[in-house]
Amino acid sequence: MVYPITVAGVKRDLPLCKLNETMHIAAFVIFGDVELTVKSAEALLKKAPEFDYLVAPEAKAIPLIHEMARQSGRNEYFLARKATKLYMNGVFEATVRSITTQGEQKLYMDGADAAKIKGKRILIIDDVISTGESLRAVEELVNQAGGNIAGRMAILAEGDAVERNDIIYLEPLPLFDKDGRPVK
Ligand SMILES: Nc1ncnc2[nH]cnc12
């Protein structure tokens, strides 16, 4: 079962994956898809508010944030990491409950990145916003760093996120029932 979608003029068939006993999701993964990443970045930048820095959660949004930074002539962007690394200092964290990951997950921000974010206009980027949990966690980290949220953008808004008016996105993505019928 697939869900056909056109994003920024690019057509893809998203495979339906079982999430639990009652729901399926249409998997949207930009990893390895250069055309989709480049065109989505272009389309999002056309709709973007003014910003100083882009920030995204690890991992699926990394090609997108890189391409958006490159196209907008910015040489630096920041990631909320899924794990701390020994080269990170002054790290702080926020907790996430994701739709695709079991249980709790944490996101971490490096202190050196936080110092650059302080007082700057920050545009938060993700590939898909669904429950809004990772977005909320990134926002918490940006706030802790003293950054000002300039906007929240994603390629797709899924399920309830479709009705949010505080995010800018390119296309809606439904959730699907146990038989693969779109529900929302
Ligand atoms: N439909 C989807 N595809 C891939 N990752 C997701 N995360 C949340 N919803 C998703």
Automatic annotation (TrEMBL):
<dbReference type="InterPro" id="IPR000836">
    <property type="entry name" value="PRTase_dom"/>
</dbReference>
<dbReference type="Pfam" id="PF00156">
    <property type="entry name" value="Pribosyltran"/>
</dbReference>
<feature type="domain" description="Phosphoribosyltransferase">
    <location>
        <begin position="50"/>
        <end position="160"/>
    </location>
</feature>
<keyword id="KW-0328">Glycosyltransferase</keyword>
<dbReference type="InterPro" id="IPR029057">
    <property type="entry name" value="PRTase-like"/>
</dbReference>
<keyword id="KW-0808">Transferase</keyword>
<protein>
    <submittedName>
        <fullName>Adenine phosphoribosyltransferase</fullName>
    </submittedName>
</protein>
<dbReference type="GO" id="GO:0016757">
    <property type="term" value="F:glycosyltransferase activity"/>
</dbReference>
